[in-house]
Amino acid sequence: MVYLTYHDADIDEEAVTFYDDGRWLNDKCIDLYLEYLEHTIVPQERFKADIFFLRASMTFFLSNIDKSNISIYSPPELKSASIIFLVVNNNSDVSRAGGGTHWSLLVYVRELKLFFQYDSYKSMNELKAKYVAETIFGLDKVDIIETNAPQQMNDHECGVFVLSFAESIFKKNKHQFDTQNDKKK
Fold first, then answer.
1. Burial (0-12, 13-18, 19+ Cβ within 10 Å), 77
2. What is the overall mean pLDDT for the chain?
3. Higher-confidence residue: 175 or 69?
4. Count of CB atoms situated within 10 Å of the CB of 10
5. DSSP the chain
6. Which CA distances in Å does 5 have to 2, 10, 41?
7. What is 2-184's CATH number?
8. Is this structure's pTM higher than 0.90?
9. Mean per-residue pLDDT for 106-118?
């Protein structure tokens, strides 16, 4: 049963339990908040062309399908957006739904051709983030800049940190996005 639908995101009965204290957020919870960010913080069309939030579920899907099919299933924004936010999960077992133990945020800045990793638990997802970047973007070798991100103090808040990082990065750089878009006019 679906409890909440917000644009393209649905929260079902199982996902509701992930909002309980001491639980980690699953991909549906994360995708709901990214949907919210996209429709409230990045509502203007001029930002939508430059900023793209690749959903956690889509990041996982694209990084685990046959590489020859990635271009078929990839959203067009992966080739055109200036800044792309990707939510990375360390699950390596595609047969296990709900697998993995950690979320992190990977941000690609096209103009700089750089990937930035925001990981709330040291560099736990460093190798997975590198794999995701290389696979989804079809690159042979990727260097990822590990940021000095705030660190979680427990084993279950990584999803909350990822969402906080995404919102904070956009808000912090909003002036830069405004300036870039004004130049395009």
1. middle
2. 83
3. 69
4. 15
5. -EEEEETTEEEEHHHHHTTSTTPPP-HHHHHHHHHHHHHHTS-SHHHHTTEEEE-HHHHHHHTTS-GGGHHHHS-THHHH-SEEEEEEE----TTSTT--S-EEEEEEETTTTEEEEE-SSTTTTHHHHHHHHHHHHT-S---EEEP-----SSSS-HHHHHHHHHHHHHHHHHHHHHHHHHHH-
6. 7, 4, 18
7. 3.40.395.10
8. no
9. 95
Contact 107, 97 (CB under 8 A): no
CA pair distance 106, 108, nearest whole angstrom: 7
Position of tokens 């409890």? 3
pLDDT of residue 51: 86
**What tokens were used for 145?**
């800049």
